[in-house]
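In this section we turn from sequence analysis to structure. A common task in structural bioinformatics is to predict how a protein folds when a small molecule is present, because the ligand can shape the pocket around it. The inputs are simple: the amino acid sequence and a SMILES string for the ligand, here coenzyme A. Study the lines below before reading on.
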Amino acid sequence: MTVRSYAAEDFEDVYRLRRLSFGGPQEVPTTPDDPPGSASALVAQDDTGITGFLRVWNYRQFFGGRAVPMGGVASVSVQPHARGTGVAGRLLAESLVLMREQGQPISTLYPYVIPPYRRYGWEHVGTMQVALVTLSDLAATPRSSVAVRPATRADLDEIHACYLRTASTMDGPLDRTAPGFDMARKLELDVVTVADGPDGLRGYLAAARPDGKRLRAHDLVADDVDTAHALLRQLASWAGTITDASIRLLNPALVDLTVPGGLQRGFEVHDFMTRVVDLPAAVAARGWPALVEAKPFAVDIEVTDQHAPWQAGRWRLIHEEGTVTAEQGGSGAVQLEARALGPWFTGSASSASLRRAGLLSGSHEVAAALDRLTGAPHPVHLGESF
Ligand SMILES: CC(C)(COP(=O)(O)OP(=O)(O)OC[C@H]1O[C@@H](n2cnc3c(N)ncnc32)[C@H](O)[C@@H]1OP(=O)(O)O)[C@@H](O)C(=O)NCCC(=O)NCCS
């Protein structure tokens, strides 16, 4: 079996394989679903033909206020006759090499099955959540002086800027700049309502009513409470014809703190897993929470990573004036398995939890400094799945 880059001629065979695994129309579409530059892909092949496929979306994910290039692994599929023979494993191992070459120091994926990804170093770090609100309860939302109007094409840049103001303050969301994100497609949604602010937009609501039953809010983004109330009242205005609306949670706290009642959290929860692909590049790319201590400090770690050997070994993480660098060497006072790197980097799990899970060992004091770097533990969220 060989693994190679996907080529345009593979389109039909790969479509049939993906359809077999994930469903879709029987007829092969005439155009690919990945616009140029949006993704790269690998195929596995043997003398029977293409036996496996894996796609890597070009995304960027916010951590510490900076958008870190991220390989979004998706569409991992293996021909039924070839399953259980290590095809997915080979594709995952090769994807690490590919992502490192492409300058994607971290990788995130939504797993249908967990063991293959865990075996190759990805680990659970966060969720994409959808909440359900009862529209009659939203009537209690305070009145707002903020006026709203329908969005036009001229608003697209401001809608994105407004999204980024929220997304960049959270750990986990995409920056939605990749070629796969066509902002203009937002306007195809049934409802796109914006609120003007003194300097651009102060919030927007993008929602669809796909089945005539429930309203689905894809984005509810507000810079301030008056805008949040204005947009929630927009949702409330649907009460009567429909009973509830789902809201995808980009910023769960905003919804938690402003919806007046009847919020069903966890209506949909999708777990995602993250892996560090290139430790020094990942450390250089993210932002770090402002630490109270002004003095520089160093954290010595030793990484075990069979599938990304370039980042195995001892590293000294040096915190100085708000930035962190990873240099080879040091005492290796704390030992981390490859699977610990995702939860550590994203700040989703404390060193104590990683220790209990058998993914971290060594000095307790140095491990506590690892937590201080990222501000762990804290929730990590994505606003969409892929
Ligand atoms: C899931 C899938 C990609 C696995 O491909 P594969 O080539 O059979 O996987 P591999 O042989 O490389 O197995 C890698 C590891 O994952 C484990 N694994 C594979 N499929 C698994 C499954 N469905 N459930 C649990 N573990 C699984 C294997 O046991 C192996 O672990 P081990 O080496 O410790 O024994 C393949 O079965 C498939 O295409 N399924 C349909 C589509 C799908 O569900 N894709 C997953 C998207 S997240």
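Residues 22 and 75 are 8 Å apart (CA to CA). As an exercise, try to locate the residues that line the coenzyme A site and compare them with your own expectations.
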